[in-house]
From TrEMBL:
Transmembrane helix is among the record's keywords: yes
Keyword terms, alphabetized: Membrane, Transmembrane, Transmembrane helix
Organism: Fibroporia radiculosa
Protein name per UniProt: DUF6533 domain-containing protein
Transmembrane segments: 6-30, 51-73, 135-157, 198-220, 240-259
InterPro entries listed in its UniProt record: DUF6533 (IPR045340)
The organism's place on the tree of life at top rank: Eukaryota
Chain ranges of the DUF6533 domain: 21-60
Keyword Coiled coil: no
Pfam families: DUF6533 (PF20151)
Length: 344
């Protein structure tokens, strides 16, 4: 009874975490939609714009597929789970069958993979731009960062597509005939597979944390060098961009650290992956929009909620707002004509 209550509470908490991540993603989208239309949709499409759209909307697809798994009504995901349940009933206890994958798991993992890969490309591009087009830094950071999507893809194909399921007694349904609880009384072998999967996901989070830490250190080193320059030779926009980038990677390091701390628990690791994907999309897109707005000579100076939140997130220097207009009084000075020739 106690185990059933704990399992029910865990499932409820997991569903709430998924809903919260989706709400935060949509809320930020509403706040930044105006800036996206102005700086992305109305501009000529470039590589950075395509990267922005890929990061932003792949996170939306992952959140949408995750929400379908928690729907209280009958969906194609629920029918797929019911089919898996009926398939398991054909096998005797402790027997193993080929792996069965629902379409939602495939779509969710694909969306997370694309978000992580594009996020790491964005990180490498930022380093490439900050450090005067240093290709070796681009390759170095991209190589470390791409370990995250590669490990995530390995976990999915190795532990979900290839590893078999081990049937055990006690498989039950919840919500009538719509879904299966998660829920099977796994055998010892299945627990080992789940733990190995959790450890690999923690390794992916650690590689992402390492990449963000390296970029954070490089960015703040560049910012310190820029800060040591005289005010006359210090480019103000470059300082703002460096500060924004440094704060961005600092926040991403915190996100990956939290994901690493809870990654040893499989269900919490899945929730951490969803939150990391959502926050990666939010922070990356906000940074790109902030850089576009900072470099725009006719930038918007309205105190909208989007701009206030952007300033809170990225610490835009408030000392350099609208320039003050200096009014000079014009004084007419009479000019005396030169004396004629011969006059003393």
């Amino acid at each position: 009874m106690l185990n059933g209550g704990i399992e029910s509470l865990t499932i409820t908490f997991g569903s709430g975490a998924i809903y919260t991540a989706a709400v935060v993603l949509v809320y930020d989208y509403v706040l930044t939609l105006r800036s996206e239309i102005r700086y992305i949709w109305k501009a000529r499409l470039s590589f950075v714009d395509a990267l922005f759209l890929a990061i932003r909307y792949s996170a939306f697809s992952g959140a949408a597929f995750a929400l379908l798994t928690t729907a209280p009504f009958e969906t194609w995901e629920a029918r797929m789970r019911l089919g898996i349940y009926n398939l398991l009933q054909r096998y005797p206890p402790n027997d193993k069958i080929p792996a069965v994958v629902s379409r939602s798991n495939l779509l969710i993992t694909s969306a997370f993979f694309l978000t992580a890969a594009r996020g790491q490309v964005f990180t490498a591009v930022r380093v490439f731009a900050i450090f005067d087009h240093a290709w070796w830094l681009f390759v170095f950071v991209a190589g470390i960062g791409m370990a995250t999507p590669v490990i995530t893809g390995y976990v999915f194909f190795e532990f979900i597509l290839i590893e078999p399921l081990y049937v055990t007694p006690g498989a039950t349904t919840c919500n009538g005939s719509y879904t299966i609880s998660s829920q099977f009384e796994w055998s010892h072998k299945q627990h080992e597979l789940a733990q190995r999967q959790a450890y690999w996901l923690m390794a992916a989070r650690a590689s992402s944390l390492l990449a963000d830490g390296i970029v954070l250190a490089l960015t703040w080193m560049k910012l310190y060098r820029n800060h040591m320059l005289p005010d006359v030779t210090r480019p103000h926009i470059s300082t703002i961009l460096l500060k924004d980038t440094g704060i961005f990677f600092g926040l991403m390091s915190i996100v990956n650290t939290l994901g690493l701390c809870v990654g040893n628990v499989l269900i919490y690791g899945a929730m951490a992956s969803l939150w990391a994907s959502s926050l990666t999309s939010i922070l990356s897109c906000r940074l790109l929009l902030s850089l576009r707005e900072t470099s725009d000579p006719s930038g918007n100076t309205e105190d909208s909620l989007s701009r206030v939140l952007e300033q809170a997130l990225f610490g835009i220097d408030q000392d350099h707002g609208q320039s003050q207009v200096l009014e000079l009084d014009v004084v007419e000075v009479p000019v005396q004509s030169p004396p004629p020739n011969g006059d003393a």
